[in-house]
Design goal:
Largest sheet: 5 strands, mixed
Order of helices and strands: HEEEHHEHEHHH
Distance between the termini: 44 Å
Protein name: 3'-5' exonuclease
Pfam families: RNase_T
CATH architecture: 2-Layer Sandwich
CATH class: Alpha Beta
Structural class: alpha/beta
Strand content: 15-25%
Organism: Marinobacterium nitratireducens
Number of strands: 5
CATH superfamily: Ribonuclease H-like superfamily/Ribonuclease H
Keywords: Exonuclease, Hydrolase, Nuclease
GO cellular component, one term: cytosol
Length: 206
């Protein structure tokens, strides 16, 4: 049986209320978000594995590129030619990668209980939860913000009777935001952060 994420998060919060990570489940009170992206060996959460994680903080109107996370993991067995064609990351590029447990520790320390922003962010969260639950007993409890939804809600009134193109490259082009190192975790995280700031604090896209 598939348990809805909201119910699972409620149970995990109760389970962790007296634990070392109880603070992660507290409502965030600041003005920061963390733009997050994971590069994986595939799009099937059950079979894919994470090869890199990128994240950058956003504070108000600023993307804090000096406060970023750029993690490469040890090459998994599922790193094949098909996935390499997309993200251009080879096993040799991950020779100095770290173990997933170390990556998760770094990630939790960096994100804290801030909201997580991403492009199809639910996929990244589900991928990370797959590793987090066996390790910590809970998945990421953070609120999530989906960039494509923010974009759609802002421009939908201009597309009455038509569809809104939500492709990554299209959104970046419409917002006049440069795409930074596409299909790298940190590059995509920074690009998404720039698009979000443009949407929230710039002029409405045409």
């Amino acid at each position: 049986m598939i348990i809805p994420r909201s119910i699972r998060r409620f149970k995990e919060r109760l389970d962790q209320r007296d634990g070392n990570y109880a603070w992660l489940f507290e409502p965030y009170q600041g003005d920061e978000l963390v733009s997050l992206d994971c590069e994986t060996t595939g799009l099937d959460v059950r079979q894919a594995e994470i090869i890199s994680i990128g994240a950058v903080k956003i504070r108000g109107k600023r993307v804090l590129t000096s406060e970023r996370l750029d993690i490469r993991l040890k090459p998994p067995a599922s790193l094949t030619g098909d996935s390499i064609k997309i993200h251009k990351i080879r096993a040799a590029d991950l020779a100095d990668g770290i173990e997933m447990d170390d990556a998760l520790d770094q990630l939790l320390a960096f994100i804290g209980n801030r909201p997580i922003l991403g492009y199809y962010v639910n996929f990244d969260v589900r991928m990370l939860d797959k590793y987090m639950r066996p390790r910590f007993g809970f998945g990421l409890p953070n609120k999530t913000v989906e960039l494509s939804h923010v974009y759609h809600d802002i421009i939908k009134w201009k597309s009455v009777g038509g569809s809104v193109d939500l492709r990554f490259d299209t959104i970046a082009s419409k917002l006049d935001v440069p795409i930074i190192e596409r299909h790298t975790a940190l590059g995509d995280a920074i690009t998404v952060a720039l698009m979000y700031v443009r949407l929230k604090h710039g002029e409405a896209p045409v």
